[in-house]
Amino acid sequence: MSDEKRDTAVVDETRALEPAATPPGPCVMVIFGATGDLTKRKLLPALVNLRQERLLGERFAIVGVGRQTMSDELFRDRMLEDFAQFATRSLSVADTAWLRKRLSYVAGDPTDPDLYTRLERHLAEVDQRCHTEGNYLFYLAMPPSLFMPVSKHLARAGLVAQANTHWRRVVIEKPFGHDLASARDLNRRVSTCLSESQVYRIDHYLGKETVQNLMIFRFANGIFEPIWNRRYVDHVQISVAETVGVEQRGSYYEQAGALRDMVQNHLFMLLALTAMEPPSSFEADAVRSERLKVLQAITPFTPDEVRRYTVRGQYGDGVSTSGERLPAYRSEDHVVRDSDVETYVAWRLMVENWRWAGVPFYVRTGKRLPKRVSEIAIQFKSPPFVMFRKTNVESLQPNILVVRIQPDEGISLRFDAKVPGQTLRLGTVKMNFHYEDYFGESPSTGYETLLYDSMMGDATLFHRADIVEEGWEKVMPVLDAWQHEPVTDFPNYAAGSWGPEAADELLRRDGRSWRRL
Ligand code: BG6
């Protein structure tokens, strides 16, 4: 980065103010599904990154639980091999030794009570060896059908019983239910084994730096909040575009679809952080209650409104931007040949409250789009009167503030400026802040903060039961209407294109258009 781009004085000041993070204290992280994909791709690399940030010390251990029979030694070798493949930073000799010393394994069937008797004994030994003081973080990196059996067995074995001397927490991965009824049922059943404060429902979008920064951007700066409302904002666009297809997850995706997989959780959280009121404090429940209120304010849809304001799509075969041939969703593995599962969703929704009444929020997400981009764009209203008579009004571009979530995390503001010269001409320019320019690159998996917070007992970035249920409540009318009206035009967009034509039409009807990402 050039010297002109970087205001070192400001950066150094920021760093000086930064308090050093406190290590979470002694604990054992018990990973159910330890030989699975999530552990090797995200969890282990994230733990090593925390170690390298000096946030995991000597009094820490990782216990893997899986069905395969394996010695501790073999488990350690496997983990280190996987680590070499998925690490975001390299491991020093000292950290390799640190990791090996802390890894151990317990094999068994998660539905068999005997596993938990052995696990209890094993954890007691680990506590002795690593001085972890009986603090356990159970991470369920496994299919949702196992959440309940595992929670029940953990409770029966006394492994989630807390005391003044130790804490016990359980991290659950999405999906939290398949619809409102199953989410409610899951929450109710989980509550019979664990108290709500012990349950950490993870949404990895909340772990993304830029997503967390949204609250700082809005509430730590005085200049944005006064214009962050219906008087100044014309509309908001939230886009999460992916280039990947369903990869090896056809059988899961056939049961899910884009609305359940992405909108009900990730996109709703981006919407909630964009639209929420300032919380009374930075405490977990204060922040989570504000997120909940946004979801509560989304107007529920009638079937007719679903028809008018939502668009679903599925990719057919196509070509990527680099010229590679891409198969249709219906030809992916474990997908039925006449599947009507959506791989794309666009939705115009309204947050009916004092701040946002009348401001449309357009959200879209899709697989096999031309670019991987996630962003939130706030488009401001045009000035009430254009006084440059010789300038065509049409040529004025509205101000847009874009929060880029990935890749190239940052924030930009678009505004009009005078093109130098003797005639009055306007051009559109951008102020652009790139995270990397100011704070350098910090290779991460996106799970570091979430793991750290769950060890610290900070649930701010996790879903509370009522947030999950509210999310489902708002997508149910859409799911129901779609189920009653089977699609006839799938596939309706080519892999490698920007989605179905109907999604463009959705905005065109309002005199607007999607941003070109
Ligand atoms: C997951 C979805 O939750 O998020 C996937 O199940 C999706 O289908 C993924 O690909 C996207 O995450 P990211 O971090 O790559 O944007």
Describe this structure in words.
The structure is a single chain. By secondary structure, the protein is α/β, with parallel strands linked by helices. It folds into two domains: 17-173, 3-Layer(aba) Sandwich (Rossmann fold); 206-508, 2-Layer Sandwich (Dihydrodipicolinate Reductase, domain 2). 37% of the residues lie in helices and 19% in strands. The chain has 16 helices and 18 strands. The chain has helices at 8-17, 37-52, 72-86, 93-102, 113-130, 147-156, 180-193, 209-219, 250-256, 258-275, 284-297, 303-309, 435-439, 448-456, 465-484, 501-508, and strands at 27-32, 60-66, 103-107, 136-140, 168-172, 199-201, 233-241, 310-313, 315-316, 318-319, 325-326, 344-350, 360-366, 373-380, 400-406, 410-418, 426-434, 493-494. It has an eight-stranded mixed sheet, sandwiched between helices. Helix 6 runs parallel beside helix 7 (180-193), helix 7 (180-193) runs antiparallel to helix 15 and helix 10 packs across helix 15 (465-484). It is globular and about 80 Å long. It binds 6-O-phosphono-beta-D-glucopyranose (BG6). 6-O-phosphono-beta-D-glucopyranose binds at residues 204, 242, 261.
